[in-house]
Design a protein that fits this description.
Blueprint: H1 9-13, H2 17-26, E1 30-35, E2 38-45, E3 48-55, H3 63-78, H4 82-90, E4 94-101, H5 113-135, H6 149-157, E5 159-161, E6 168-175, H7 202-226, H8 232-235, H9 244-253, E7 261-266, E8 281-283, H10 287-301, E9 304-317, E10 324-332, E11 335-345, H11 347-359, E12 362-372, E13 375-386
Parallel strand pairs: 11-13
Antiparallel strand pairs: 1-2, 2-3, 4-6, 4-7, 5-6, 7-8, 9-10, 9-12, 10-11, 12-13
Helix pairs in contact: 5-6, 5-7, 5-9, 7-10, 9-10
């Protein structure tokens, strides 16, 4: 087997001493001693002792060369390519979700432009759905468009890694604080309970919730295909993080043709957790219509509460002087996509809507959003007002 070696000085110098140390500690190397600007690590593998020298200061003149020597030892000790070892060192403090898609009629590592854009947007939606489920006091089957500051902060921290050949692969990398105290739960502790995960930082809880929600959605899709319960299996999984938003994001990963895809999770080695199996979750083509139907039905049955619609009145209809129907073309708070939303307004609000329509003024209204067929309806409208064009 040919194993690539890393000779790029910039790539080698970019690795911090802390990343090197956390990787060695996570791989169960032990410190034997210190010499000058380096730390001597040792590890017994199959009766053979390996010794590695880790530089402590990145400012020394030959830092890249020392990292190169360390990679050479690690590659030999682990019987792996230095490129693989370097990639793991780079993400030693990151939880990595890998999304492997299998688009048809594409070369290795390739995907159609539209499907590629949709894949990136869907990955972002998956992270948002999991982060909201963790941050919210109570999970919702339909999550609001407006997200908390905590969710938005996480989005700014999450990174997308490079693709890889063999299929089109996305890696979602979430930085997590390293575990420093030995008093905290360690890897392979058998007496830990699920409650211990609640003590994990927000970033780690989002990683776990995303995996658990994806696995629950996969199981619900399987059950819906063979059982009579239909949507019930999805609504029962809402406490685990399943939502219309998550199901729609999963469907988006399948692209226009609905190709299969696979998701997996590897926790940051710098923050080990109790032994949990993270088997890859693979979605088939026949899963995607079920997920799409579940998302649609959840949106039809479960309103999105407290939605603010801002836009222009584009249609009016009323018989007599009572309640009338209007539609607004505009955006939902927290979502920049242009939507058309229908609603019924009482007499005074309908009069204001008529004036706004005639004078082309912007209006806003708050209510509960539901989907009926292909239309969006705002029920329980309140606080209708003209927001632009007034003195």
């Amino acid at each position: 087997m040919i194993r690539a070696q890393v000779t790029d000085r910039d790539a080698l110098a970019a690795r911090l001493p802390s990343e090197l140390a956390m990787y060695l500690r996570a791989r169960e190397w032990t410190i034997r001693g210190r010499s000058g600007s380096g730390i001597q690590w040792v590890k017994m593998i199959d009766g053979e002792e390996f010794e590695a020298l880790q530089p402590q200061e990145s400012t020394i003149r030959d830092y890249a060369a020392r990292v190169r020597d360390l990679l050479n030892v690690l590659g030999a000790a682990e019987d792996r390519s230095e490129l693989e070892v370097l990639a793991d060192i780079t993400s030693v403090s990151m939880d990595v979700h890998t999304v492997r898609t299998f688009p048809p009629d594409n070369g290795p590592g390739m995907i159609g432009l539209d499907d590629g854009v949709q894949a990136f947007e869907s990955v972002r939606s998956l992270v948002i759905a999991a982060a909201y489920a963790v941050s919210a006091e109570q999970p919702r089957a339909v999550q609001p468009a407006r997200k908390s500051a905590e969710v938005l902060r996480l989005l700014r921290e999450v990174r997308i890694g490079p693709s890889a050949e063999g299929s089109f692969i996305l890696s979602v990398r979430t930085p997590v604080p390293p575990r420093l105290s030995v008093a905290q739960p360690a890897l392979f502790d058998d007496d830990l309970t699920d409650d211990d995960e609640s003590a994990e930082p927000f970033e780690r809880r989002v990683s776990l919730r995303l995996y658990d929600a994806i696995r629950a959605a996969h199981q619900a899709a399987n059950d819906a295909l063979v059982g009579p319960n239909g949507l019930d299996v999805f609504t029962q999984a809402v406490p685990t993080g399943v939502s219309a938003n998550l199901c729609e994001a999963l469907v988006g990963l399948g692209g226009e043709a609905g190709h299969p895809f696979e998701l997996s999770l590897r926790l940051a080695p710098s923050r080990p957790l109790r032994a949990r199996m993270f088997e890859p979750v693979r979605f088939r083509r026949d899963h995607l219509p079920v997920l799409a139907s579940a998302a649609r039905e959840m949106r039809e049955r479960v309103p999105e509460e407290g939605v603010v619609v801002v836009g222009n009145v584009v249609r009016l209809h009323r018989e007599g002087s009572g309640t009338g129907e209007i539609s607004i073309a505009g955006t939902l708070e927290g979502d920049d996509r242009l939507r058309r939303v229908w609603m019924n307004l009482d007499g005074e609000d309908y009069v204001e809507a008529t004036r706004a329509h005639q004078e082309m003024l912007v209006v806003s209204v708050r209510g509960d959003l539901v989907r009926r067929g292909t239309r969006l309806f705002l029920t329980n409208p309140a606080a209708f007002r003209v927001t632009a064009g007034e003195d």
